[in-house]
Amino acid sequence: APVIVWFRDDLRVGDNPALVHATEAGRPIIALYVLDLISEFPRPLGTATRWWLHGSLESLRTSLLRVGIPLVLRCGPTIDVVRDLAEETGAEAVAWNRRYDPAAVALDNEVANAMHDLGVKVVTCAANLLFEPSDVTTKAGGSFRVFTPFWRAALQRGAPRVPLPLPSDRSNPLKVSGDELSEWTLRPAQSEWAHKLSRVWQPGEQGALERLSEFVDRRLNGYARARDRPDREGTSRLSPHLRFGEISPFQIWHAVRNRQGEDADRFRMELGWREFNHHIAFHHQDLHERNVQPRFDAFPWRENESSLQEWQEGRTGYPIVDAGMRQLRETGWMHNRVRMIAASFLVKHLLVDWREGERWFWNRLVDADPANNPANWQWAAGSGADAAPFFRIFNPIRQGELFDPEGSYVRRFVPELAGLPAPQIHSPWTVGEQRLKDAGVTLGKTYPHPVVDHKAAREMALDALKDLRNSS
Ligand code: FAD
Fold first, then answer.
1. pLDDT at 175 over 90
2. Based on the structure, what is the number of domains in the chain?
3. Which of 301, 304, 330, 395 is catalytic?
4. The Photolyase/cryptochrome alpha/beta domain covers which part of the protein (predicted)?
5. Within 10 A of 230 (CB to CB), how many other CB atoms are there?
6. Fewest C-beta atoms under 10 Å: which of 25, 177, 398, 402?
7. Does one domain contain both 299 and 326?
């Protein structure tokens, strides 16, 4: 009787505990991936993550074939698909790596129950977080709301385990029917946008491992400073690979474990933020819909359709915000510093509900993640755990001057401003008439006037916060 390995957010062959467990049982293995469009579960993927998933599954199929395991793709309601396959093949067990957000946990429990009813064994493994969210607790046994004590407590649990070896070759693959990946039409046909993404990214395990080693060799030195500069390639860009589990946090941790100093410490701390956000998601149902701090339920957000659209299209008149939003449209990714600036701008300058921004990112980011995206949006809005306080409002002009001092990031993504000198490129309305003319810029025509005045917007945001305080 075969063992089914059900792949989800762990699309890799290396360091895959569920797969290793199944190979150790010495049985034939069926690798399964389920596309559940019917219950659209746990949350329908966005356009960018669908694009990524296609490449990731293609790559997984190749890697699995190398160890003699066919990947079976099936589409349908998850529980029915897993149950049918288990019955059809007379499977002895189903193994998977655990997921942690409450909706996913609930579904996994339902599948486990269905398997128990069939008499099929279920094996679940820890694979995608360095520390199980339920293992990291306060002294009183509760969950954490603040990052630093969380990370301290996590690290006290001991060093993360070493990555597991590749499974050995299987010689007796079973023939099981499944869908063709192309039938799923995860990628839009003939899209200029999709072509651009293919030039920037290589989804799959191989691409992830290459990115990791390139980062460790070339960019880890200097990371602590360069990570805040959108004009430089200062970060690892591992986020979409981690999102789909093409690489495990254990593999990343061990690639840098012997490195000392602020760069390596900072990088490990960012992995810690990922752990923290999953911990928050594990303990908060519907993180993408519900404020972690309920007092924000009464926040006077504005219905501001036109401003939301200007923000989405990168036409707010604030160059650093627009550059970020266009980087997102063009590449499916945005630099972390600019994500923070753009999110703060939507929420605090335009007073648009953070959920609108979260949804846009969810649809557009190749790394759109059920824990990291809502947790970071709530962080930016002030409604999250250990969030930036609402009254701390980023000044988008100053942020641009500080983190894109030569203006090269803006020039790249907002080419109509390329002729402006730094630092005024971050506030085109301060540039004299003649200079603007020489650069071919006509405000209100070739590039928009600011949608809001920074100072006035700041006052309004602080007033809204006062209203919230008075009402709670
Ligand atoms: P590196 O600097 O190389 O960091 C290494 C890894 O650490 C990242 O791949 C990521 O897994 C983790 N990490 C880094 N920064 C953070 C952070 N602030 N929070 C949690 N984990 C972090 N990240 C996502 O993976 N998915 C999202 O959907 C997402 N949405 C975001 C939305 C907003 C509004 C903001 C402000 C941040 C968001 N982030 C999200 C966090 C962060 O911007 C990205 O993880 C980071 O930019 C990815 O680039 P990198 O891999 O080069 O990062």
1. no
2. 3
3. 301
4. 1-130
5. 28
6. 177
7. yes
Beta bridge partners of 4: 30, 94
Q: Do residues 237 and 360 share a domain?
A: no
Residue 371 lies in a domain: yes
CATH of the domain at 429: 1.10.579.10
Same structural domain, 142 and 36: no
End-to-end Cα distance, the chain: 60
pLDDT tens digits, 80-122: 999 999 999 999 999 999 999 999 999 999 999 999 999 999 9
ipTM of the complex in this document? 0.99
Domain identity same for 269 and 335? no
301 is catalytic: yes
Of 6, 51, 253, 273, the active-site residue reads 273
Asked if 455 and 306 sit in the same domain, the reply is: yes
Claim to verify: residue 133 and residue 109 sit in the same structural domain: no
2 pLDDT band, cuts 50/70/90, is: very high
Asked if residue 32 belongs to a domain, the reply is yes
What's the pLDDT tens digit per position in 300-352?
Answer: 999 989 999 999 999 999 999 999 999 999 999 999 999 999 999 999 999 99
Q: Could you tell me which residues come within 8 angstroms of residue 417 by beta carbon, excluding any fewer than 6 positions away?
A: 319, 407, 410, 411, 425, 428, 439, 441, 447
Name 353's Cβ contacts closer than 8 Å, sequence gap at least 6.
299, 301, 347
d(CA 61, CA 71): 6
Q: Given this model, what pLDDT does residue 382 score?
A: 95
Is 151 catalytic? The answer is no
- For residue 181, being part of any structural domain is answered with no
Average pLDDT over residues 455-470: 92
Residue 357 within any structural domain of the chain = yes
Contact at 8 Å (CB) between 304 and 351? yes
Q: Who lines ligand 1 at CB under 6 A? A: 227, 235-239, 242-243, 270-271, 273-274, 277, 336, 339-340, 343, 361, 365, 367-369, 372-373, 376-377, 380
Closest ligand 1 atom to Cα of 277: 20
Residue 270 annotated to the active site: yes
pLDDT in tens, 383-426: 999 988 888 999 999 999 999 999 999 999 999 999 999 999 99
Nearest residue (by CA) to ligand 1, atom 14, is 270
Compute the distance from residue 77 Cα to the ligand 1 centre, in Å. Answer: 31
- Residue 456 — φ and ψ, nearest 5°? -65, -40
Residue ending a domain, choose from 253, 283, 313: 283
- Domain span holding position 276: 129-160+199-283
